[in-house]
Amino acid sequence: MNQATNDNNQQVTQTTLKELGLRPGIALQVRRLVEGASKKEAQLFGAIENRGVMVGPQGPEGEDPGLTEGDVCIVRGFTGQHEFSFISKVLQTYDKPFVYALLAYPNQVDARLVRQSLRTKTRWPVVTQMGEHQQQGQLVDISLQGAMVSTPQIVAAVGKVISLTIQGLVEGELSPITVKATVCHSHRAQDGESHFTGMAFHSLTQQDKLVLSYLTNTPRT
User: Fold this and answer.
1) The domain containing residue 130 runs over which residues?
2) For residue 159, which of 185, 179, 137 has the smallest C-alpha distance?
3) Of the candidates 86, 113, 140, which is a domain's last residue?
4) pLDDT digits (tens, 9 = 90+) for 38-95
5) CA-CA distance, 105 to 17, in Å (whole number)?
């Protein structure tokens, strides 16, 4: 892999789609490279090395990305560890057996590592606290570096430090763990009934790391 630095001094790696190990269903953002074009939500249907990349709407009710044959576009996504992007050309569009666009397979992809490890999907109950504001929620995913939680209301603004208590079980016994975390991103769910907050842990003790290691290897569903 080759490494470079972008304008924001963030390390970017030149890699391939195959090395990233993209899975069908991963969420994408697609934008045509024409003046005034906006980003469109899409998903990856599949990729065949050196042949093409299939992208289409997110779900049966999703909006058509609006790509047409000959369009040049930039595609962005997140693997769970890497943010990635590549520029491609629309080779052909289809509406049967389902709506999708076939893009040219890129020779290289720009990728930036944003998580050291993949997160484990889970459903542990949690309590978040920011100052006097406390609320209960559920853990959506977790790794040794951070987590995402679902709560009824917004937890805190991006950049704020919060307290997160995870009500986990270790070998069948309740073993709550409380850690400090910095809010990295926050958005409301599509159903409008919950709020997702992604956060990065810091100042972990050795005991914290041991419990987190156990929880990431024994997900609760």
Assistant:
1) 120-217
2) 185
3) 113
4) 888 888 888 988 899 999 887 666 678 889 999 999 999 887 677 899 999 999 999 8
5) 9
